[in-house]
Hints:
By secondary structure, the protein is mainly α. Helix content is 69%, strand content 0%. It has helices spanning 2-7, 9-30, 36-55, 78-83, 99-131, 133-146, 158-182, 186-199, 206-229. Helix 2 runs antiparallel to helix 5 (99-131), helix 3 (36-55) packs parallel to helix 5 and helix 5 runs antiparallel to helix 8. The radius of gyration is 17 Å and the shape is globular.
Amino acid sequence: MKKLYEKNEVWFAVLWIIVYCAATIPIRGNMGDESPLMLAALAAIAAGATWFVKANHLEGKYGLDRGPVHPERLWYFVPMIVLATGNLWGGVRMAYSGLSQLWAVLSMLLIGYVEELLFRGFLFRALLKKDGPVPAILISALTFGIGHIVNLLAGQANLETVMQVFFAIAWGFIFTLAFYKGGSLWPCIIIHGLVDVASKFSAENQTASMVYVIATIAVAAVYVPWLWRQQTQLAD
């Protein structure tokens, strides 16, 4: 892994994303998010990626060594925090019962960590170094969103997947700009985890889900350009 990282950071990131998808898609499709095997697979990927970062002293590069650079600007994250509640707008109901709900919640938290480290950490930082901020932001955000098409392989309905793609693209831009401007990956990890956890307490309501998707896209259309205009904190 280290040799690939040193030779080509982009392919290093792509390999991690492939491993993540290959490990989780079959489990998610056949056993669901509530499976202990899903939790174990995510924990293994999270542990492996974290070990690589720590072993090579890359915490600073990937924004894992600090909170937001300017604590007085925490209010910058208010739109993200508000949107993180969107899965609950249509009502609250546990997706599973007993330990199954616990495994699902823990899996969602790990998905927030793993996906942010892979897409915003590994991939975005590699692209930022290679191509500069604009291509890096575009590719990282779009790849994250379009990557949700693989949920078709996990048995999701077409309409739900299309909604997820646009929803994820909007979040992809939000997370990428928040990391690029703030320099810390933790706000993205925390908010991403909360969004996914809330999905396991969401009552099925198609109207509320559509409102949430539209609201996320609308907020991103305003919030992302605003973040872009803020002073850059993340060194290229």
